[in-house]
Write a structure and sequence with these properties.
8 strands, binds erythose-4-phosphate, single chain, alpha/beta
Length: about 220
């Protein structure tokens, strides 16, 4: 299972990378705005800065909603760095653009996916990643993890190679449940990764080992 961090914050990206378990980064226009990164040139530079910190894939989202605009923007993004994956919205032109980029060998991440039917379309178009948003489904009393299971089942039925990137992960149990279901990737905040470390028996066990060592030395 790949771990991506879902942020545009360079310090958090560095921290996750330093742990040695990071496989990539996802961003979106809201995450960029949260870091105060505005203006096309600054945004493009920020993507390159992120690519220079991590070894893996970095999703960079287009803001166009028409096919021609997505192609133009996506090609510009893909040119920036070999680690860039073009992130496209799950709308009709986004599906068309995913097919266009697949034919050109440019990797894509189809985002804002909330149903199995949308995930099926993304796979048919040849998307590299599909991003079902589990936290946002949970927010409206719909089982986000069930969507991951449905997509896993459908993709396995037909051997689709599109990777299931569980997005909108909010906490460690999302990570663990996605791993049980077989999501290929999860993207979440740093806290969802660091939370996996925590166990009180680890802390008390380590404290006892160190205390016992001190007694004998
Ligand atoms: C996915 O790529 C999105 O950036 C993201 O996971 C959205 O998460 P949120 O619902 O916590 O905003």
């Amino acid at each position: 299972m790949k771990f991506f961090i879902d942020t545009a914050n360079l310090d958090q990206i560095r921290e996750a990378q330093d742990m040695g378990v990071l496989d990539g980064v996802t961003t979106n226009p809201s995450l960029m705005a949260k870091e105060g990164i505005t203006g096309r040139n600054n945004i493009l530079k920020h993507y390159v800065d992120i690519c220079n910190i991590v070894d893996g894939d970095v999703s960079a989202e287009v803001i166009s909603t028409d096919f021609a605009g997505m192609v133009k923007e996506g090609e510009e993004l893909a040119e920036l760095h070999e680690q860039i994956v073009v992130k496209l919205p799950m709308i009709k032109d986004g599906v068309k653009a995913a097919k266009y980029f697949a034919d050109k060998g440019i990797r894509t991440n189809v985002t804002l996916v909330f149903s199995a039917g949308q995930a099926l379309l993304a796979a048919k178009a040849g998307a590299t990643y599909v991003s079902p948003f589990i936290g946002r489904l949970d927010d409206i009393s719909t089982d986000g993890l069930n969507l991951i299971a449905e997509i896993r089942h459908i993709y396995d039925n037909y051997g689709f190679e599109t990777q299931i990137l569980a997005a909108s992960v909010r906490h460690t149990m999302h990570v663990i449940d996605c791993a049980k279901i077989g999501a290929d990737v999860m993207t979440g905040p740093l806290s969802s990764i660091e939370g996996l470390l925590k166990h009180p028996l680890t802390d008390s066990g380590l404290a006892k080992f160190l205390a016992d060592y001190k007694k004998g030395n």
